[in-house]
Amino acid sequence: MDLQTPIHKIPSFVNQLSVQKNSIEIQIAIKKEQYQIIIKECKTVANELKEFREKRHLLYKLNYLQQLLDNQNRTLDLVSKESCDLAKENDHLKAILAKDKINQYEFTEANKKLLSLSEDNKPLDKKEIADIVYEIYHYPSDHIDIIKTMRQWRKRRQEQEQQELQQQQQYDKIELNSNF
Questions:
Q1: pLDDT-derived band of residue 74, with 50, 70 and 90 as boundaries?
Q2: Terminal CA-to-CA distance of the chain, rounded, Å?
Q3: Sorting pLDDT into bands at 50, 70 and 90, what band is 98?
Q4: Where are the alpha helices (DSSP H) in 118-143?
Q5: How far is CA 26 from CA 17, 21, 45, in A?
């Protein structure tokens, strides 16, 4: 009477309640498994947190070492780039000096002048010029006197070329006027 169910429907009602009970028991079992998994995860996280706290003092050292490594890598990158640039420049100089564009007349004249200035009978060649250029290029602070002399020579040469150009322009102007 409390269930307000007729007697002939009680077996089906009991079956229905039994099915609900089984379903609830299955849900309870699933929740217990999930609870056990969560408990294990919490224990794992708690252990990891405990280990982290024990080793936290190493974190500062690790960060410091990471910064040091980053700085060293940046320095290595810069040095590698500079080394590559120097190698390219060196190859470029070698290529320039290896070409046969140096006039033989210039070698002959240079050797004559060298003989008159010193007792050294060794003739000048491309290899020696390449070595001299290499030395000046890589150690300019040791050869300031040569650089100064070369600058003066270049300035005089440019002035001469400028004068020759002006003379040629004047000559062309005079020739043009005389043709009219």
A1: very high
A2: 141
A3: low
A4: 126-138
A5: 14, 9, 29
